[in-house]
Amino acid sequence: MNYFKQVIYEMKHQRMMTWVAISGTALSIFLVMAFFITDNISQVDTAPETSRSRVLLGKGIHEKEPGKGIDNSGMTLTLRMAEMFYKDLDGIEKISFVRGDKPAEQLSVQGQEPFVAYGRKVDAEFWKIFDFKFIDGKPFEDSKAASADRSVILSRSAARRLFKEDNVVGREIELRMIPFHVVGVVEDVSPLLDNTYGDYFTALDVEGMRSGENENQIFGSLNVYLKMKDGVEADHIKKQVKSRYKRLGATMAREGKDVVYHEQPYTIEEQGMSFGSNNTPDLKNKHRIQWTIYTILLLLPAINLSSMTRSRLRHRISEIGVRRAFGARKTDIIGQLLGENLLITCIGGLIGLILCIVFLYLASHLFFEIGSKFETSLDVLNARPDFSMLFRWQNFLIAFVLCFVMNVISATVPAWKASRKNPAEAISETH
Fold it and tell me: Which pLDDT score is estimated for 428?
């Protein structure tokens, strides 16, 4: 208790220096956490993508024909290619085929003006991989039957815009001027969740697609979602897919063609990177850039805080000399000074983290690229990340670790020098 009283006394005694140090720490944590949260928001587990670390995405294929100078790639697959690469993999719990394109179509009900909505075409397994909250109705159980019946699942916002209420199962809407029957209504999904966001969902008839495909065609319209079993690593799945690519490449080599493997299927972190269908995501380079930025954002303010810490300690040299004269050990002096500085940095860090979360929530349009991806979706201009995506206990732990690192960097050297001061010289010094 006496220790904390001493810390509070010193903070009150040097108010200006204390608040400058707290403000500097808050600004540093604000910048680091803003970068960290915006860079990692696409990886946090949040409904309906509550198992993001276990979900992989297979998409696209890259074909070469060196003899003719042909180099083709596409972001989607035929069903035959999708099944060849991803079906019956060891370690996979669920597999879902979805249309890779995400059309913006007109929705309407009789007597109302149509509006443009963003849609997805998914199979029945899609609803088992992602945890959508159904407000009314239920997901497709049979994609073929749902496709034949022209069934549609609406988001809450779309249902309210069409019918002014949520419970609308059994009603009819028009999609592309064609009647569809509403079989379910799901809670809205943030536009930041690219794998699950949509204003409406229709059924993908996988069997029907198979009968209409050309056997030699490799570029199609499908993406594949794979949910790994608990404890399975992505590398285990990638090795299996790579071997399948090799087998296909050996077959294509007879025709002078080749197929390039680009480390598919992609993890959630790889999905968030920008790369083309004929490129491989470079996670190592991304991590190098991240750590470089983190280091700069931490090191520069820590150097400034170190100078402020030295200035604060100059006012306490006499006190330190008296304590040394009465037998205080150097380790005791260093420990107290580090503790005092840690308290200041934690206060500043907490302020910086709270300001960061509030600022990112209110000014999300400055940090998250939404409009470029979903220009025609509902309410996109007002889209914000869910608060649960920003407010996570892991963020507090990371902020505390950053505060500790900043404290060690900024206070260790000044505290060590102060503890080595000769007691007689220290007592004789004046403020």
Answer: 62
E strand or H helix that includes residue 428:
helix 423-428
Distance CA(129)–CA(227), nearest Å, equals: 6
Residue 357 has pLDDT above 50, yes or no: yes
Q: Are 340 and 414 in contact (CB under 8 A)?
A: no
Decide: 399 and 353 in contact? Cβ < 8 Å: yes
pLDDT digits (tens, 9 = 90+) for 224-275: 999 999 999 999 999 999 999 999 989 888 888 889 999 999 998 898 777 7
Please, which pLDDT band fits residue 375 given cuts at 50, 70 and 90?
Answer: very low
pLDDT digits (tens, 9 = 90+) for 272-302: 777 777 788 888 888 888 888 878 877 777 7
- Cβ pair 182, 48 in contact under 8 A: no
Are 394 and 289 in contact by the 8 Å Cβ rule? The answer is no
**100 with 225: CB under 8 angstroms?**
no
CB within 8 Å of 34: residues ≥ 6 apart: 356, 359, 360, 367
Closest Cα to residue 421, out of 318, 351, 346? 318
The answer to whether residues 141 and 192 touch, using CB atoms and an 8 Å cutoff, is no
103 prior amide bond cis, ω within 30? no
Q: Which amino acid is at 128?
A: K
Q: Are strands 115-122 and 200-203 parallel, antiparallel or unpaired?
A: parallel
Band (155; pLDDT cuts 50, 70, 90) = very high
- In angstroms, rounded to a whole number, what is the distance separating the alpha carbons of residues 213 and 306? 67
Residue 384 confidence (pLDDT): 63
Contact 54, 43 (CB under 8 A): no
Cα Rg, the chain, nearest whole Å: 29
Q: In Å, how far are 94, 223, 264 from 235, measured between CA atoms?
A: 17, 19, 10
Alpha carbon distance 128, 225 (integer Å): 11
Environment class of residue 171 by beta-carbon count within 10 Å: exposed (0-12), middle (13-18) or buried (19+)?
A: middle
Classify residue 181 by its DSSP letter: E
